[in-house]
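Hello Y.,

Per our agreement to keep a running log of every chain we model this quarter, I'm adding this entry. I've kept the format consistent with earlier entries: sequence first, then predicted structure.
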Amino acid sequence: MIKYPHSLLPTLTPLFASDSLTLAQDSRILFYQLLHVSEHPAVLESAYAFIKQQLQAVKQYPDADFSLAYHPDALDKDSFHAYSGQLNPQGVQDCLQLISPIVFTELGWLNTIVQANTNQTPLAMAMFSVMLNLNQGVQAGAFIKAELLSAGIALPELHTWAFAQQSAIPDSLFDFGALQLALGQFSSEFFPEILGFNYAYCRAMGILEQLNLSRQDNHNFSQFLNARQQRLQAELPKLLNIIQEYLKLFEGQQVELWLRIQTGYCLYRQQNERCYQQLKEQLDCSLSPKQLLIRLLQRITPQAIGHHAKIKLAGQSLDTWFAASLFDSEGFLEALKQSPYIDQQNPADSPLLKLFEFKGPMFGVLNPTEKNTLKAWVCAVQTDLPFKVYSPNADTDCEISASLKTEGLPDEQISRREKAINFSKLNQRAWFHTLVNIEHFPAALRVAKQKVHKVLTLTRLLRRLPFKRYTHPAFNTYISDVYQHEVKTYQPLLAPPGLSKQTYIWGIEQLAPAILTDGCWLQNINQLQYHPTHAIGATLFKIYADELGSGIMAQNHPAIYQQLLDSTGVNLPPIHTKEFSQHAGFIASAFDIPCYLMAISKFPCAFLPELLGLNMAIELSGLGKGYLRLAQALTFYGLDASIVNVHISIDNVATGHAALAKQAIQSYLDEILACSGEQVMQQHWRRIYTGYCSLASVSRGFKVALVSHVLLKRLAMPFKRHFKTNLTAFS
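Predicted structure for the entry above:
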């Protein structure tokens, strides 16, 4: 019998900042904002509504058979046969560019599959292991980017609005990409759908596999696809086992959950086939010269701004044309066609073409292929075919502007629903419960960001930089000095510890909220993979994966600590329940550290410098005297010191987490220096050091409370003995 609700059985509807999901918008906007969810958490309302909308549409999916009863081998029946098809692109690079929104966000639905509320849940950990396995080897996004670059094609960076503006890419592919990202924001709420979605991804022939590119002249692509297919197929038995175990776990809800798993499976197939059909229609039709030129203009005009202020076309400068938020390629070409730049009688001799010849002012701007594209359009201006260009209406333009400039929601938009739970007034216990289950309380994100700002502002006022000017040698020396001080001050335990066994057990209990959420400060670090800081994110994700035992429960830090708690007789409810945060044995300040760590984890892009410094402080803390003495004391009393020993080992400054933390900081500052210069780099260093000091700042109250408890207990002992003696005498 399950005493508490399971963390993977959704029982709550997410609480948003408005009573109704009113932020419905174009999937391109949704796609862009989900890439920047750290800065725009209000987009979660639209993401949730979008998922619900897509799941509802699955019911009209012609191949969906929801009457299939569950049995262990049901996933191998006809209704789950993989869809097969084949695309025949005329240009390999063009097709790779078209599918980029999907492949660049692949596995986005697993980005938050393990959070603080599920870090000891075997099924979530098993899915985390699947994610790690699927991420091994060359990823599709990296491969496609390399293929395009080798052909001289540079796509806009994924995180930019220009990427989402690519009108040559069908809307359906941005729908699919947005869906993958949206599911990753609600991994507990849609866990059954994600199970089916992921199973279909590994089993079905995806868009990438449907490309007819495995010819001998595409040997590299063929090799890549073969390795990719082997990796996907290897996970199918594991996924099938996870699905079966999930349904066994909730026998009373098996029918409902099995339906949801099938829906997730069909959702992937539906999205895949819809994209396939749109791509097939587009690829089967040769692009006109005008379509090819529009694609070229959308790629190069953003870089042309600032060079054409004096050149007029249809009454406005070229810079004005190019700087528009959505470049009007149709209007631009129509104006160009009517201008003196085009010789209507003899198009091949048009002045426009001469601009790009040797000694012309635009020589070298276009390569030979691009010049041929321009010439083909000039020579076919009277016969070109119409081409539909994506262009949101005026209302949508207003939504774009507002949504990209606003962080969170203004106070007047906070609904009665949110005010019913005033997150800013919650005590630390209730705030901890909210943050552990933040997926169900996205309306609390605004307050979470405010609280992080408050901690960092206070820390900034109190901290003192260790050196005036950052350099790598100075930083190396500082970290080495901090570590060596702890090592040199360590003295082996030669006598019984100064604190009693019961005091240590009490301390173990007080640390439970922090250690049972170990790694939580990095639980959303995968957001960085879509940004220029993806290499930094990969380093930090390595640390997060280690904290969770890389999917192996026996090596999972929270699970190791849970074993210590169990062995000492400290019985706590599951961490995601209200009963845990209301546990009478905890002092209030026991929640200070984990609340701060979970809050900042939701904004890895906005607070990346501070997060880098915080991570350094966490990985360095305890190394040397702290951990060594604690391990000896626990062993002396016969308590399991595994959690301490694993941190001594894995956090080491040579090759462990402390080394990775330092490497991430130095790599980040190198990038800032290269891109923005010395002054900006020093500003970012100050932010990093503020984050480093914030751990001590937020820990201060907890440490004082621990010491006060021990001192008060010691002072109380003589009074207890005196009272006991007098009571005996009186008897």
